């Protein structure tokens, strides 16, 4: 009978309770993962505490004209969520560094926008609508929706909005090259990024229905660390089992 060397090393024979060893490593790696998720990277610097939200936060992004505000507003009504149109927020609260004459838009101050939204995001139950997504803290969002529109349809929507010249061309190219979808996939876990078509009113209805159902079925993720906090006896047991030879100091019981 062949024995796998991997299996042989995975369960150290010296440990008196192999199942407890496994349990410990599950806890250990979970804590390391949580620590990296909440403390690592420049976008995590605004982290105050682990979120306890009971309703999800949804980011709706996409090229201007794909229907973010239209859909977000309907979704907010259908699912009883708060809707933040970041463009409006920037204008109303002056969260910018002046006006860009070339692109005919405000130069958004990303830090001011994040500070403005932080408390609401901590509470949960928000839909954030903006044509960019890489500067928000990753921990804020449970779902990132990327709306997509066929080029000819988008062209008509943007020209009827008065876009022309470089502003029109830039936005059409942005949609052709799927810039926002790529940005979303680079900024968030791929399993929470959801591209949706937004070409006609049927698409809006279907998207609102799909997302309302998703929001209503959402449950906060079970946090193992929270369970551990309640189990101080486990810490003592692990210390006894490993006789002080494992990096027990990495377990944080806050
Ligand atoms: P965004 O917020 O992405 O810039 P808007 O929600 O302001 O886009 O929509 C731009 C225009 O396109 C609006 O006139 C809106 O009524 C229209 N529109 C948006 N989504 C759709 C859709 N799925 N089907 C038809 N028209 C749409």
TrEMBL record:
<feature type="binding site">
    <location>
        <position position="161"/>
    </location>
    <ligand>
        <name>ATP</name>
    </ligand>
</feature>
<feature type="binding site">
    <location>
        <position position="70"/>
    </location>
    <ligand>
        <name>ATP</name>
    </ligand>
</feature>
<keyword id="KW-0808">Transferase</keyword>
<comment type="subunit">
    <text>Interacts with small ribosomal subunit protein uS11. Not a structural component of 43S pre-ribosomes, but transiently interacts with them by binding to uS11.</text>
</comment>
<keyword id="KW-0547">Nucleotide-binding</keyword>
<keyword id="KW-0732">Signal</keyword>
<dbReference type="Pfam" id="PF13238">
    <property type="entry name" value="AAA_18"/>
</dbReference>
<keyword id="KW-0418">Kinase</keyword>
<protein>
    <recommendedName>
        <fullName>Adenylate kinase isoenzyme 6 homolog</fullName>
        <ecNumber>2.7.4.3</ecNumber>
    </recommendedName>
</protein>
<feature type="region of interest" description="LID">
    <location>
        <begin position="160"/>
        <end position="170"/>
    </location>
</feature>
<dbReference type="GO" id="GO:0042274">
    <property type="term" value="P:ribosomal small subunit biogenesis"/>
</dbReference>
<feature type="compositionally biased region" description="Basic residues">
    <location>
        <begin position="45"/>
        <end position="55"/>
    </location>
</feature>
<feature type="region of interest" description="NMPbind">
    <location>
        <begin position="85"/>
        <end position="108"/>
    </location>
</feature>
<feature type="binding site">
    <location>
        <position position="67"/>
    </location>
    <ligand>
        <name>ATP</name>
    </ligand>
</feature>
<keyword id="KW-0539">Nucleus</keyword>
<keyword id="KW-0698">rRNA processing</keyword>
<dbReference type="InterPro" id="IPR020618">
    <property type="entry name" value="Adenyl_kinase_AK6"/>
</dbReference>
<dbReference type="InterPro" id="IPR027417">
    <property type="entry name" value="P-loop_NTPase"/>
</dbReference>
<feature type="binding site">
    <location>
        <position position="69"/>
    </location>
    <ligand>
        <name>ATP</name>
    </ligand>
</feature>
<dbReference type="GO" id="GO:0005524">
    <property type="term" value="F:ATP binding"/>
</dbReference>
<keyword id="KW-0067">ATP-binding</keyword>
<keyword id="KW-0690">Ribosome biogenesis</keyword>
<keyword id="KW-0963">Cytoplasm</keyword>
<feature type="binding site">
    <location>
        <position position="68"/>
    </location>
    <ligand>
        <name>ATP</name>
    </ligand>
</feature>
<feature type="signal peptide">
    <location>
        <begin position="1"/>
        <end position="33"/>
    </location>
</feature>
<dbReference type="GO" id="GO:0006364">
    <property type="term" value="P:rRNA processing"/>
</dbReference>
<comment type="similarity">
    <text>Belongs to the adenylate kinase family. AK6 subfamily.</text>
</comment>
<dbReference type="GO" id="GO:0005737">
    <property type="term" value="C:cytoplasm"/>
</dbReference>
<feature type="region of interest" description="Disordered">
    <location>
        <begin position="37"/>
        <end position="63"/>
    </location>
</feature>
<dbReference type="GO" id="GO:0005634">
    <property type="term" value="C:nucleus"/>
</dbReference>
<dbReference type="GO" id="GO:0016887">
    <property type="term" value="F:ATP hydrolysis activity"/>
</dbReference>
<feature type="binding site">
    <location>
        <position position="65"/>
    </location>
    <ligand>
        <name>ATP</name>
    </ligand>
</feature>
<dbReference type="GO" id="GO:0004017">
    <property type="term" value="F:AMP kinase activity"/>
</dbReference>
<comment type="function">
    <text>Broad-specificity nucleoside monophosphate (NMP) kinase that catalyzes the reversible transfer of the terminal phosphate group between nucleoside triphosphates and monophosphates. Has also ATPase activity. Involved in the late cytoplasmic maturation steps of the 40S ribosomal particles, specifically 18S rRNA maturation. While NMP activity is not required for ribosome maturation, ATPase activity is. Associates transiently with small ribosomal subunit protein uS11. ATP hydrolysis breaks the interaction with uS11.</text>
</comment>
